[in-house]
Structures
1.
Amino acid sequence: MAEPRLLMPQLYDGGSPPALQGGVCDCGHVFFPLQAYGCERCGGHGTRLRPKRLAARGRLVASAVVHLHAGERPAPFVVGAIALDDGPVVRTLLTGTDVSLPPGCRMVGTLVPVTPAQDGTPRVDFRFAPAMGSDLS
């Protein structure tokens, strides 16, 4: 069987545990996604911006259910804002359709299987799920 292909590999890595591919400026500002336009805090650019692997752990800020969607993704699905332990707030898909998760709930990144590519290659997507057990700290 073919190895699953990660959707959007420029943003996430398939490591264990999976992580986000962000960046850090010489001024200390941490951002996601990795980009070369310049630091939002100090304006630094070029070699002042470096890649930084961001742990996929944080706290839920807010979430919303999308009931109607014109794209390829079947509704309903949940979008959440996660304040990462490493700094930035990211918007991402959550696993499941439960919006009863309270703000402040611990969340962790996970890889989930999604519809295979047209050529039949299995695919996985990066999403956030409520933390369980040892992930709660």
2.
Amino acid sequence: MKIKTVLQFLESIAPPVYQESYDNAGLIVGNPSTEVTNVLCCLDSTEEIVEEAIAKNCNLIIAHHPIVFKGLKRFNGKNYVERVVIKAIKHDIAIYAIHTNLDNMLYLGVNTRIAAQLGLVNTRILAPKKNLKKLYAFSEEAILHDLRNDLFEVGGGTLNEQAQLSYATLGVGTIEGQGKATLKLELAFPMAIQGKIQTVLTNYQVNHGVNYDIIAIENTNTQIGSGMIGELPKSMKEKSFLKYLKEKMQVTCIKHTALSGKNIKKVAFCGGAGGFLLKQAIRQQADIFITADYKYHEFFDADSKVIIADIGHYESEQFTINLLHEVLTQKFSNFAAYCTAINTNPVSYYF
């Protein structure tokens, strides 16, 4: 099996089109046509991770964080990024990053795993994205059924948690002054499948003269976005919840704002640096907002409206390693997938 087959599967779970503009997810090092030996799943691609891949005969590293964010002008081994890339190339090891595109997924995403760790229910995306498109296709009645079904087959007509939604109206289409009965088919679709949608439309345009328009719409896609919010099955006292959070997320310490004496029921959270979602957490009346990488002055922004709990960047995303391992082992049986045995957290704590 080739590396590109594995990557195509991962990108069906977290399409690269959903990564943030600053990100560099995707195949960073390696040839996608290389045969896979084994796969190593990790959070960060460090030199130790590459050594571990060599020891386990893995020629594909699936990491959450990209080892390269900006262009490299020299490969002198002056820093850990250059050394990792050099070592990976030298040993024919591919490095793939599945970063903010995986963060932004409702299903099988980074935050979904956090919700599972905390046992939350009624979960949803905290800040849904506006990444839907609208299709208007104009066809004769005789082919409408086939056209609609072919569009449904590739994922068209999907809006939030509903599928195969469409609407057709009868009108009069004119070509060079000649009018005839024409049906206008309307349906929405997520931007990640636009290529598939256009492949279907091109076929019908060539063979049946179907014309179409595709436009961006303002509707939010509740299956794609930043952070999540959910509820505990039963409310807990603040200190009891912090103890529970520490245990479930396997953290050694939690930085948090002042406690208010209220119970915790509604929980907002975001793996990694999610401070930009604080207003959303407050707007949706979360009792606590769990994330990482908060700076001193940013804690004041809670303004007694919500408790901010910073559990650490690595700590908040560590279970992503298990998530990647699980989806790979459930899908593929012709290679071994490993969770790294190395803790790549660059932050240490002294107690």
3.
Amino acid sequence: MRHFGHIPATARAGLFHREPCEFGADSPARVLAAALGATLYSPATRPRLADDVMKQVRRGVVSMVLCLEDSIDDGDVAGAEENLVRQFADLGRRDGEPPLLFIRVRTAEQISDLVRRLGPSARLLSGFVLPKFTEERGGPFMEALAEAENSCGRRLFAMPVLESPELLHLETRRETLAGIGRIVDKYRDRVLALRLGVTDFCSAYGLRRSPDMTAYDVQIVAHVIADVVNVLGRSDGTGFTITGPVWEYFRLQERIFKPQLRRSPFMEQRADELRTALIEHDLDGLLREIELDRANGLLGKTCIHPSHVLPVHALSVVSHEEFSDAQDILRPERNGGGVLRSAYTNKMNEVRPHRAWAERTLQRAEVFGVAREDVGFVELLAAGLVK
């Protein structure tokens, strides 16, 4: 699979200076962590789940989470597990490659039990999403994952969700973060990415952000995100990929503030129509949040609606300017440091301070590609909407 692999090769060639690479469930962890992109969540109770999964592949989805936790009623868990086993068996009989598939469990015991019940179709499973992850809860989860991996004979990843009240509350945050750091470092080879449960953070204080506001406008949430990145997202080799929080909105809502999406990138008629559609579906707030995710050290995003996937992927493509700067900074002859003017002659590139940014940019370029010099977000989004 590859990002934008659902559009014709001729269209990709017209969009990309360097096309996204191909990857699969057996690719190196560093590639998969960067390539997760918009991870689409789906309740495990859906009766035509196998059809839904393959439909989303045709729309450009590369990673999905099939949820047994908050998205379903407590009384539906047993039925949802049975449904998952049936749907995985169905997927195993189909042609075509499914996306990276993860199951969000409630308890550690579910991990080994589900892998056993999946049988041969466990080969389609990439791992598990672990809710309300702390040092205390994390140990049993990670041990169960190792046991399940041994029983099915394939690599399984963990994606812990950081959403516990202990992490949110100021008086316990430092200790909780340190504990999470210890457990994920112990099982570093099994942890693909860390996910942020911002909805649970808001719930602890009875808050819910409107579609006019990003997670970063809710200060109590913004402070937690900053602290998580500070401790667990460092670029010195000790950090992990941390994914962006869920965007909850996908229906028309009454506006309070002026639209945040500028008109300047939308000059052509089709692009102007696309801008209008984005605003009407409250996606301009999503676009702003995606940009803020990356500015704050996050990569990828939790998504609960298919309409969110393409904006996340389009904004993850590396611009030609970013690529040019990153390449200049990382040239071997620059190892001694120094400052240089960018090839675009609009900024300073300082080799040592910008090196970590450049390395992350080239990693993103590998999986999402590099846009041609005259191609921007609108062109990428419009191309991705091909039926």
